[in-house]
UniProtKB/TrEMBL annotation:
Membership in a protein family: Belongs to the class-III pyridoxal-phosphate-dependent aminotransferase family.
One Pfam family here: Aminotran_3
GO molecular function annotations of the record: pyridoxal phosphate binding; transaminase activity
Organism whose genome encodes this protein: Gemmobacter fulvus
Keywords: Aminotransferase, Pyridoxal phosphate, Transferase
Gene3D superfamilies: Aspartate Aminotransferase, domain 1, Type I PLP-dependent aspartate aminotransferase-like (Major domain)
Cofactors that this protein relies on: pyridoxal 5'-phosphate
Domain of life: Bacteria
Lineage summary: Bacteria, Pseudomonadati, Pseudomonadota, Alphaproteobacteria, Rhodobacterales
Name this protein carries in UniProt: Aspartate aminotransferase family protein
Length: 443
């Protein structure tokens, strides 16, 4: 009997070793890590430069409590993150994961409001669907019923607006009127709440697990920034999944030239080598809070030198090998190969994403975007078929009512075009079996 317990009920083999985009179980079976775990292992597994940097740091020190010491890796990593972030985002606060980064962002925003005479601002508007983390504060922002339902009585209900799922609403992604249409929902929500009570708006610039790599329509990001400014509402970007280079730029917001007030990053930032995350904030926000006595928040393991040394080595590896460029280039190849699948399978309703954060949506019929029956558990089936082929992909059910299914195909940023061929061969074998198994229910 195993004494471990996880969410997954599927029996999984024991991992033995991993290198590059490949992973091997204890019986020697090889898998392609086609989802970088949960969009984490951005530079692949067992990177020698990162492991060497970690070993070197381990020989010096592995922990120094943040109230007792600054650390050299921490200083250097903060400087590197600030240099990679857009102008104005210059203060970095380390944490050990995505939920911690989101909690930190929201608490910094709130403390800033309190110290600047805006204590009536506390509401954080988010989107539906969305995922912002598993702790109770982050869950209050999360628009994803299966994860929030059991905990509702224990949570503060934060207002939600619909995520801009233009492809489902039959709207033109390229028309700025589409972006304006969805952004107007934020303005309406701010007005309904009372503008003076709204602290912040939080969004994933390129969506993650809850929406399947949702990309905003033309004009949306600019309009959101304008509306936030109009009402003095802080814009928080949850880049826990999209940040760190995966989308081809350091931050997802960079794709549209949008500068938020606070950003949360994690996942690919530690890249599977260490638990690491960060909140990156506007300098004046942090200075106001510090001048009033300091940020009343922190986590014990935050900014430990081993985690920071690994995070620094990950960013150096990305820079040295132009992995953001590779994510953009090879991601475009992978995306067009996924789009080609739409000719072969009528049940692929949409292909979307940026860089190496890509997904396709499974529907009963693309012409009507009719969702697959939930009881079919299409996403589970496809993931298991791919797994049997030795390809790991990641999937979730989305849409209001969760009748839709999407599959994230997000290999590490080091993936080559030849490896895209390998991924596609396995994926097509899984999709063919899926089509045969559900022939009656699919277009
Ligand atoms: N925000 C987003 C956008 C995420 O994708 C995740 C993790 N899936 C989180 C927050 C929470 O991160 P963690 O699991 O590291 O707490």
């Amino acid at each position: 009997m195993s004494h471990l317990f996880y969410l997954s009920t599927a029996a999984r083999p024991v991992l033995n070793r991993a290198e590059g985009i490949y992973m091997w179980d204890r019986d020697g079976r090889r898998f392609i890590d086609g989802s970088s775990g949960a969009m984490v292992s951005n530079i692949g597994h067992s990177n020698p430069a990162v492991l060497a940097a970690m070993r070197a740091q381990m020989d010096k020190s592995t922990f120094g409590y943040r109230l007792h010491f600054e650390t050299e890796p921490g200083e250097r990593l903060a400087a590197k993150v600030a240099a990679l972030s857009p102008a104005g985002l210059e203060k970095v606060f380390f944490v050990s994961g995505g939920s911690e980064a989101v909690e930190s962002a929201v608490k910094l925003a709130r403390q800033w409001a309190v110290v600047t005479g805006q204590a009536q601002r506390w509401k954080v508007i988010s989107r539906f669907p969305s995922y912002h983390g598993s702790t109770l504060g982050a869950l209050s922002l999360t628009g994803y019923d299966p994860l929030t339902d059991p905990f509702l009585p224990m949570m503060v209900q934060m207002p939600k607006i619909p995520a801009p799922r233009a492809y489902l609403d039959g709207l033109d992604m390229e028309d700025p009127a589409t972006g304006a249409h969805y952004a107007a929902m934020l303005e309406a929500q701010i007005l309904a709440e009372g503008p003076g009570s709204v602290l912040a708006f939080i969004q994933e610039p390129v969506g993650g697990a809850s929406t399947g790599a949702l990309v905003p329509p033309a004009g949306y990001m600019q309009a959101i920034r304008t509306i936030c400014d109009r009402y003095g509402v802080l814009l928080i970007h949850d880049e826990v999944m999209s940040g760190g280079g995966r989308v081809g730029t350091f931050l997802g917001g960079d794709l549209w030239g949008i500068i938020p007030d606070i950003v949360a990053i994690s996942k690919g930032f530690g890249a599977g080598y260490v638990p690491l995350g960060a909140m990156v904030a506007r300098g004046d926000i942090v200075e106001a809070v510090q001048a009033a006595g300091g940020f009343v928040h922190g986590h014990t393991y935050a900014g430990n030198p081993l985690a920071c040394a690994a995070g620094l080595a990950v960013l150096e590896e990305i820079g040295r090998n132009d992995l953001m460029g590779n994510a953009a280039r090879v991601g475009a190849v992978l995306k067009s190969r996924l789009k080609n699948l739409m000719q072969r399978y009528g049940f692929i309703g949409d292909v979307r994403g940026e860089g190496m954060l890509l997904a396709f949506e499974l529907v009963a019929d693309r012409a009507t975007m009719t969702p697959l029956p939930p009881a079919m558990k299409a996403f589970d089936t496809l993931v298991e078929l791919a797994y049997a082929e030795g390809l790991i992909v990641y999937s979730r059910r989305t849409r209001g009512g969760y009748a839709g299914d999407h599959v994230l195909v997000c290999p590490p940023m080091i993936t080559t075009e030849a490896q895209v061929d390998e991924i596609m061969d396995k994926l097509i074998r899984a999709l063919d079996q899926f089509a045969a198994a559900h022939a009656g229910a699919l277009a």
